[in-house]
Amino acid sequence: VQFVESGGGSVQPGGSLRLSCIASGFDFNSYPMSWYRQAPDQKRELVASITSGGGSADYADSVYGRFTISRDNTKNALYLQMNDLKFEDTAVYYCKFGSTWGQGTQVTVSS
Fold this sequence. Notes:
Blueprint: E1 2-6, E2 9-11, E3 17-24, E4 33-38, E5 45-50, E6 57-59, E7 67-72, E8 77-82, E9 91-97, E10 100-101, E11 105-109
């Protein structure tokens, strides 16, 4: 199982980023997927999760209404659209399946 994440970067408050996670090594279409994040000196936390077919998603209260998780099962791809970014969204973001984590992509929100 392998993930390749991309899309992180630096952005000002109120800005947007779209994270991507390309999966390989398992039947991506059959499993729910999640995005997590870990800020400096903080525990890793669940940001959003999505069902295998993409028809249902759940979000952490802190990102609800600002972030959107989606997937394209034809491309083995998981996405996280992040809008209206805030300072507190600064973290390393990871995609996750089962016990396998991506390498992470840094998101920094600063003025």
